[in-house]
Structures are given as structure tokens and as C-alpha cells.
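Ticket #4471: structure export looks truncated?
Reporter: QA, pipeline team
Priority: medium

Steps to reproduce: submit the single chain below to the structure queue and open the exported record.
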Amino acid sequence: MVGSKVVAEKLLFGIETEWFNAHFAAKRPAKAERLVPAALHVLSGSPCLSDGGNGIFLSDGSRVYQDCGHVEFASCECCDPADLVAHVKAFERKLVQAAPEIARLVGGGNVVFARLNVDHLSRSTSYAQHESYLTRYPAPYFAKSLVPHLVSRIYCGEGGPAPEGGELLVSPRMLHFVTESANETVRSRPIFNLRDESLAAAGYYRLHVICSSTLASQLALYLKVGFTSLVVRCVELGGELIANHLALENSVAALHRVAGDRSCKERLRLANGSRLTAVEIQMEYLSIVRRYLDQLPDWATEVCDRLETVLRALEDDPRRMSKTLDWAIKDFIYSSQSNEAKDEGRDILTALYSALRSTAYGESRPSLDILLGPASPVLGTVARLNEELVRRNLRWPDLKLHNSEALRIAEIDTRFGILGDGIFDQLDRQGLLNHRVIGEDPIDRAASLPPAGTRAELRGNVVRRLAGKPDVVCTWTGVLDRANKKFLDLHDPWQRTETWSPIPSEEHEETASDPTTELFRLLEEIS
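Actual output as written to the record:
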């Protein structure tokens, strides 16, 4: 102990961001098969090493790679949420700076990258910002205590239009999650991901949180990762049932209610029969974390204080966050530009497509001809709504799902997240927002330097020193130098000493054609 403060292992976390990327050209836009490789090629102009596959590691210890037709960024491992914010913002700037050269490589025009969480054209496609937390326990240990926290993180919403169009939600992406927990992350979309992929030595686990949105606000990102990491540590310290009294009766239903709760007043039913708002649940977690402050990092107090300020504001009047949180900023923009003459009958369309969610169509939007036909999966709802249409002297053809206001709101949402010239970045440059937690210097440093204190520092230093060497392959857990027949083991997340080990020449020669496989085999042997 130092004074009365218990010295505990530091926290470690990171962020993975899926970037929406698009090419606007006078003749023919480039497809993702050309656009994403072009982006990686331009980004590789900075010091980098190959990851042995479809990406590169940068000198700050982070990784950039191609994933399902878009650029994905995995930040370096950080011990302080302010550092994480700096590295995310530094990479955003790299994308903006790289865009003109990427556009030149794919034939001119403009290339844009955006924080787009839901594709308004397909609706079934969403982009994410996953979180990773280093732990000493496997994922199931955290499920009971962490799910209510993840469901109630109302300050983490990205904001955006409802699937039916028009109405603003706290988080339209949250509607894509349809089960409480699962191992896979695509079809079932679980709130709590059970996948076990530690990327570290035995005895360490990685809690991989996928029910998260890409955020523009520095404070929202800072609180999302900073406070969640504190909750994870408190569960480690206090036991897996530390927040058992906050268990929800139906987590998925609660998440969907929070997704639309712009008033922050919706009460969620708990398993014990009581009802609490998302803000009240977060206040309960805040109380738990404050009990463990003497065993948490020095920055924990600031995270708790900042979170309490935000929660008090949301509880009092969410409009107080209209310069700070993503969804509240969008709410202000939408409200100030909203057409007072609402499209008549939109509530009927909303009811129709809400009923469709419980059918095989889910979030997809078939034409009205299908929904009104004899094979409609919601015939009962159609019959009920027909009576309302008659009462209002309306007909089904009078209702326009893609009405002008819905399209305008979707356009605002898309433009909001465009890096560089988007609405958020423009408002920020004009000093009209109040969301920053760090200054410019940390972002400038994060553009090329890793944070100190973890294996990311070693990885970044090696990338900077060996950049461009074709015989060197870098991964999260090690670096393989084929030319000099040696490797650097980085399985220990806290590795600070650069110690290279020789590769037996016979084995090296036998597997020289597959450096990534060789790296994994060698590192597994010594882990």
C-alpha cells in the first residue's frame, strides 16, 4: 500500500472502430475492393509493419485493416481513458489527411470516412465501435453485473432516426441487438459477448463489448470506456454478483426502451419488481464504483465526477447536454430544423413497421404492396390501422415512408459523422460544442507515439525502428523478424523490456513461406 491507497494492477483497454467509407466521383465510384486497399496503401506511408494479413500496425501501437469492405481501426492498449481518446482522435485526423491521396489513387473525386452507426439505405447494416477490457476472469463471470450497466449507458447513444423515419432515437443501433448473451457477434447480436479471445498470456482474458456505437464527443467516449473499465474492475474486486440487485427483468426489451428514451424518464422493470430509469441505474453503479476508489487508478475520481455531472443534467433536462453528447447534439439540430407541418399519418406507418419487427422481416422494410397484400405477416395490424385511416379520411397511398422530413433527418445524421467536413466537426471548430476532455498536444503525440506502460509502447517503438522491412511481421502478441531469425514475445500485456529470442534456423527455413503461422507457433510455445 501507498498511504491508504491499495496498489492494484492497472486497467487496460482499447477501442475498435468500423469506419463507413465512400467514394464520390463524377463517373464511377470505386468499390470497396479498391477503396479500402488504397486507404491502407496511403496509411502505410507512415511508419508501419505488416500484420501478415490484411492490415498494418502503426507507430503508436495500433492496427488498421480491411474488414467486410470498410477500414477498421483497433487502437493501441491504453491505461488511461484520456489516452484512448487521444489515439482515436489522432487516427480520425489521419483519415482526413489521407482522403485526398486515396481519392487520387481510385480515380479522382472525393473519398469520405464517417462515424455512421446505421446505414440508412440498407437499415440492416450497422457499423460499430467495440470495446476491449483486459480481465483476470472469463467473460461469463461478468454477465450478471455488467449487462444492466451496458443496457443503461444512455450517455453513450449516437443518436439517429428511427427505422420508420423521422423520430430521433438515443441510439438506433441498439435496436439491432436481439439477445442478451451469445458467443458470435453477427447473427444474434448479443448485448453481452461471450467470445473468448484474450490476445494475451494464460491467466488473462479479454472482455469484448460489441453493443457500442461510434461516438464523436470526446466526453462520451471518455465516459464510455473509462467508467465501464471501472465497473469491470469493481466486479473483479467485489464478486460477480456485486450488482445483482440491478438485474433486469428483460434486458433486450429494456435496451430497446433506452434506445428511444430521449426524456431519460422511462422506467425499466428490474428482476426484483422495482423500476428504475437508465440514469438511476447508472447512479447505482456510480455508488458501487465510489466504494472502491481506494483500489482504482487516480483518474477514477475524475471519471466518476464527470459522469455524475452528466447524469444529473440528463435527469434534470437532457437539453443541458445539447452541446456535449452525440444524441443530445443531434436532438438540438433536428429540433431547430424540424418542419412544424408533420407528415400526416406517420404514426400509422410507425405502428405498422413496429409490428413487423416481431416477424421474420425484422428491421427490413418491404413495400406497402407486400404488407397490405393477402400474404402480409401483419394482417391483424393492417386491419386495425385501416379503421384509423378511414377515421382520418386517408388512404394507404397517402402515407409516404420515405417522406421529405425522414430523408432530411437521415441526411443530417449521415453528414453529422463525416470526418473533417461533417456537421459535428464543423460545430467543434467553431467553438459551439462543449465536449472536450483533452487538448491538442495529446492528440499530436498520439499520432506517432504509443502510450507508456504497456506492451503497446514496445510494439510502437519496434514499428518505428523496423518500419517497412518486408521480413518483419507484427501482431498483438509478438513481432517476428525472419531476416534475423528472431522474435519478440508480447504475450505479457505489461511487457516493458524489449527482449528478442532466436528462432532455430532449421525450423525457420521450413516455415519461411508462412511467417504469420510461424509467429503464432513460436509464441504459443513460450506463452
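Status: closed, not a bug. The export was complete when the record was re-opened. Leaving a note from the reviewer for reference: The mean pLDDT is 87.
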